[in-house]
User: What shape does this take?
Amino acid sequence: MNAYDTDLGLYVGGEWRDTATRDTHDVLDPASGLTHAALPLASDADLDDALDASARGFVRWRATAPEARAHVLARAAALLRDRTDRIARIATLEQGKPLAEAKGEIGLAATLLDFHAGEAVRIYGRVLPRPAGTRSLVLHQPIGPVAAFCAWNFPALNVVRKLGPAIAAGCSIIIKPSEETAGTAVEVMRCFQDAGLPGDVAQMVFGVPDRISRHLLASPVTRKLSFTGSVPVGKHLAKLAAETMMKTTMELGGHGPVLVFDDCDLEKTLDLLVANKFRNAGQVCIAPTRFYVQEGVYERFAAGFAERTRRIRVGSGLSEATQMGPMANRRRPTAIADLVDDARSAGARVLTGGEPIKGEGFFFTPTVLADVPLSARAMNDEPFGPLALLSPFGSEDEAIAHANRLPFGLAAYCFTENGRRQNWLGDEIEAGMIGINNVRLSWSDSPFGGIKDSGFGSEDGPEGVAAHLITKTVHAM
Assistant: This one.
């Protein structure tokens, strides 16, 4: 058993494969920079075995009664809850987020599996009106084996978002989680294994991302791609998937605009936004990032935001006192520092933070920049870190133009007590998800996804299962 209490491996055909004869990747502790364990990386032979197993598993699982699929999903949800403390600790040790956040993530993942269990028995078709003695049926059937790739920022939830709807729909799946957070993914897969999911229905592999994606997406076995990650990688994978006309779901990056109007409940708004901005050290695709604040409350908002940010306690995610942990890898503090330097040189004011924290681990101070010009890189490229960007606006039209000016369209937030304005903003803002006087966008029964460069298709809700189905029409005389 390794330092953070999990045995890492590949899961292929119902068996775990270790580091013997395989290349490895070191899984690090972002709070110290030290190595936890060596993760085995899949060979071409491992990938071929996974494809063969997935082909067999699809034949088996599509013929399995929906109630049986639902039972496996519900049992996996129960096991996640039973093992929350252990899995959350692993997630914190390899991803860095505070332990309380990791536990909340696992709770949401379990709730999502419960929802998918219900959806497994609600995959309905319909009968079309026809003359007596004839029938026209519309059927929804599983699309086939799925190749799924997911990011490191939510190491349990991202994995469940791929496994849950595929299994509910009757598909088999090969999933490649992030190598940086492999331990959490392995423990989630063990929950499915112990819940009774047949070993050829779900496979888990790790390795060089481009090598694995090319191998899996070129195979005629694979019928659907599901990806969570950056816009450039998503576009690359979409090109590969187009070669076989593969159905895709793309949950890509964002650059969440926040419109704060002068009639908002300012203190409540600040409390919500500061806590949500620095959740998971800002490493959240739907994080509020570009704060456009009406001129009448701009200076008060900036002062209140900075004052609350200075009180955030940064440290190891295992400490109960910690409110923000380290960034997930050694690349991120440098990337954020570069964005801060660029914004400062363009005229932005640093209200608090702005520097990496010296010492062990990958820490960066929670940072607030005011008067950030639109030309600054941070206002155009997703920071994906503990960086809040503040800028004033005058009119409602100006605010909407700011919100919509980038090619991203994942999440947006608005704070106003004017009901008519709330309706208008909901219609006019270009984003797949909009929070009005609210920061929670992730619910098991609602679709999660974006538009424009932030991707297409949805996870969660009935739409998440529907994305794994084909539509077939049968006309009988």
Summary: The mean pLDDT is 97. The longest helix spans residues 99-120. The chain has 14 helices and 22 strands.
